[in-house]
């Protein structure tokens, strides 16, 4: 075999590995939203109360969001492939337990375990992609594929959840993970190169691990439980928020003085890494909040079934996927990541502003479809570019940590967005009902208020992106190439 043929084989192998990693990521991302559609069926079958039902979602969010940074750093230390495979085993086994659950305790416990496996699997994927694709053009294309899976998976989950729950039963939203998890594991052992990591001696910071995991878990718990149920000014909410901030401050102090820090503070010296994560935190809070509140608007105001809700989000998913997979790499290489990001953010903002005008007797084609199209285009442009900017500021030895940080800000941003928008929307609707407003009008107005808040969060992210992020240099020979469409 000639050297050219050897390179071609190696190139095909790494693209197969990319699709494999994205398949694992899709399984994780789907699970975060697919459960929402099945919650009523789970409640009827297992006898959950309305308040305890939230823990089917919250148990997963707390362990997933809390462990992402730790899992990402462990990937740097002992090998990302090892963490990825171990996470697949935990996630798949936990999915089986979820599907077999016969009572509340078993399902909530299995969901917590599932979150641990999801964190281990997803935290290292972006770092592995950056290592596999060091060339600028290939890396941009690979991150575009990953970004589509990571950002559009939530919308796909709404549709998949509706299909599985209506056609079979809620148990299958978990059972479906088992053959996928087994297949991904078997192919991963063949396609993913083993990496030794930089060694536990380079970062065995147990106190730091305890502090950051405790801070993140408590932060997510505060967002999804007391803040969502009792409000942001409630004493319990404030106390837990202060404790989580104290733990986070103690972690930063520990990392500044530790001989082998779990998370070297040098990573935050990168303006793009720090800025991109702030942008993602705010934009995901607005966009994923819109997914949830938009679903409620379609269900409670327009009377859509779960399957119809999934179909309503389908145009956005298709557009986002087409842009992320086929065009994002070309646009980033032609115009630069920042110049691709900003128009995308503006389109996401425009989509949310349109949703604030959706009426009670709204038409899908007139009042929903245009927003879905704008959101699909905006997210398809913005998120691949944003991930390119975030990872451009990370050194190779910190790629796993940077990957975990990107995933952490996305998950915490999503949880924050859901909690804030749901709380404010409900409070607005309740206030209007008490003043004598008809229920449906009050409900719609509450959703409009949530969409305005979401638009504000995305607008803030856009301003930060425009003022903080720096353009990443693009090789001149690649800038001059035209943007072509594959035949």
UniProtKB/TrEMBL annotation:
NCBIfam families, A to Z: efflux_EmrB (TIGR00711)
GO function term, MF aspect, one: transmembrane transporter activity
Pfam families: MFS_1
Residue ranges of every copy of the Major facilitator superfamily (MFS) profile domain listed in the record: 17-473
Record keywords, A-Z: Cell membrane, Membrane, Transmembrane, Transmembrane helix, Transport
Segments traversing the membrane: 17-41, 53-71, 83-102, 114-133, 145-164, 170-192, 204-224, 236-253, 274-297, 309-328, 340-358, 364-387, 399-426, 446-469
InterPro entries: EmrB-like, MFS, MFS_dom, MFS_trans_sf
Keyword Transmembrane: yes
UniProt protein name: MFS transporter
GO CC field: plasma membrane
Membrane topology, as annotated: Multi-pass membrane protein
PANTHER family named among the record's database cross-references: BLR6921 PROTEIN (PTHR42718:SF46), MAJOR FACILITATOR SUPERFAMILY MULTIDRUG TRANSPORTER MFSC (PTHR42718)
Lineage: superkingdom: Bacteria
Subcellular location: Cell membrane
Gene3D superfamilies named among the record's database cross-references: MFS general substrate transporter like domains, Multidrug resistance protein D
Predominant location: membrane
Keyword Membrane: yes
